[in-house]
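Reopening closed ticket. The problem is back. First fold of the pair:
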Amino acid sequence: MRRCKRFWLSFLIFTALAGPSIPLHASVITDYHPVSLYGRGQGGRQLIAIRAFTSDGFPRFLAVDPFTLTTEVVDAPRFFPLNDETGKSADTPFQLALHRHAASPFPMQNDGAVHADWPASGVYLTVDLCPSRAPFEKGLFETVERLSHDKGGAMPVAVAISGLWLEKHPEEFGWLVNEENLGRLAITWVNHSWDHPYHQGEPLEHNFLLAAGSDFDQEILRVEQALLARGVTPSVFFRFPGLISDERLVKRLRELSLIPLGSDAWLAKGEAPKEGSFILVHGNGNEPKGVRLFQELAKKGGLRLLDLRQAFRGGEGVPPVAAGQVVGGPLRLPRRAEHHVN
């Protein structure tokens, strides 16, 4: 009996230390649907519930703090709805960003937020994980982690994840979650649709999520459910596959309380980042050029990565950037840096 106990104790210690960390039990998510409820959480913090669901039989909400744009899962009994207009301000950073970036003129390509709304001394790295059979770009994330040698703490990165990539790459997903749990990465999980449909040769107006038969709501909600079932909290950001959308989709995205996320520095397309840029690279193995360019940028030293949510909440006393205006010149990197990323 003692040997049996020692065996299981050793097994549990081994599995705790071994990586990657993949949840042994995925929660069962049911009755998942959009809501828009203003309320307060523990300590009186203002929250907006954007999804309601049942997790393993318990009613819960996915809620966003409208001042920090941070999302969290709240047990229904710990969410206190507001029955009057108190606290329902429409000028919080989240609501301002939602109204600003899910509005006209609705360009078909690269709609939404492409650059920080506030002056920034750094850049925002976004990594797309579209469906792919190619090897995972683990080295890209290791490059990000090595930047912490200069800065300290977990390095921020926004990961735009598609459902099919998640489904086909459980070990790689587990590795990312484990790096986050170990405090090496601070990941903002961006929704990139479930199927990420693409039809080669079809015109853009009939391609990606504009293709006939696409169920836009399910493309979004299935990803959120899959993340929540695995213990990961989705953010309030959505990146359109191919950066292709139209007025109907963007308006529906706004109704779903999600901010569309574009880019003004898709590295593989030759777009140079500036202070406040949303850098776009692919970590799914389909676009090694972008990964190589980012790693070269990191080797120069002085690269400062910022939390994506910070791009929309600014700082006290700092005026926001006017709509359509880009503030900041080319990324300022020293010619010689004391530390280089290899």
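Second fold of the pair, where the issue appears:
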Amino acid sequence: MGKDDLSMKGDPRTGLAAATLGFFVGFAAVALYGPAAKNFKEVMELSGVMLGLLVAAPQLSGSLLRIPFGAWVDKEGGRKPFLLLLGLSVAGMAGLTALLYLYYPEGLTREMYPLILLFGMLSGCGVATFSVGIPQTAYWFPQSRQGWALAVYAGLGNTAPGFFTLLLPFALVALGLTGAYSAWLLFLLLGTILYALIARDAYFFQLVKKGISEKKAESIARIRGQELFPTGNTVEALKISARISRTWVLVALYFTSFGGFLALIAWLPTYWISYHGLEAREAGILTAVGFALLASFVRIYGGHLSDRFGGEKTAMASFGLILAGAVSLILAESFYPALLGEVLIGVGMGTANAAVFKLVPRYVPEAVGGASGWVGGLGAFGGFVLPPTLGFFVDALGMKGYATGFVVYVALALTAIYLSYSLLRHPAAEAKPKPLPAGLTPSGRVRMEVVYLG
């Protein structure tokens, strides 16, 4: 037994570094097609809806795979789920790069559109690494340090789409479309290999894989400092939370804030290029700095505001900013009013993302882990649904549709304000903890996510 104990590898800081690296590498796929959308649109003669589906393709797999892969960590540890998602992402990027080498530009026709979508969805598997890295990181750290560890993980990893939206247009100019995606493939491949080399599962999972019983593995791991352990009841937590109406209210709120955030990372470069006539590099800088990175960093302060004023009030104010930004973008015919609208939406979404997750343990205390899975997974699905919806307005109204399409965000923001207000007005009914079914405890994964969400 002592030999097995001594042979365990890794430590909390290495675990955090590996998870953050893997998430950063995989999450960049949110920006896969957005900065290069104009190139694909012109060569393949895509409609607005087809263009919207193209830029949204990575979000489909990236959102729907969050729930099962996040749950898998409790059974297997994080390393294997992480590597599978990154491997699928590498396969998608390799397929896309090969297709571009063989056919771009003359041979890349509309008939190849389904294949481009498929490679986008495969590449988007890396987006789902978020839900794997959260438990992988949390299992490494004691309760007293999880707030810091998870803030570092989510904060640094979440900046990847912003940086890639910023860098890809410059790579397109310097290397061309095929060369830019080849460089991205190399980055993704090297990042995956580096993750595989340094990542280790928390001590409990290492011991169980050596054939040690879970009870003894937990005892040894506790001596080494591990405090959180899987309960094996993730599926039950999902079932319990799905029966609570407040869970679906929170899903709707996160659909607007985080799903809307993912959608605009992909759509805004096209908006700036097509509607305002900017160069790809200028559009990339505006989307990255004025929206993606801004929203990511504001999210940290949004947690502080939620602690001080309450998640419901913070959410209402945040969705109010999104509403104001959307109206500004609808009315804007010149650069600066449009930039103001983008910044308002970015600040609103970043703050709202923090506020919504502040509300999860308050309104679904009997199954926080399950509710987190539904909110994070289905809420992010907005990143897939919204871009083709915006594209529909372009098809229907022509160039003016790029501005008019933001009426979708007006409707979403108004609905979210109403739902946030309804939570504020009726806070108690389902917020009281209910007796847990036999075998389900508030420890393990559920307790871990309370720390992250709070």
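Update: turned out to be a display glitch only; the data is intact. The chain has two domains: 1-228, 231-430+439-454. The two ends are 37 Å apart (CA to CA). Please close again.
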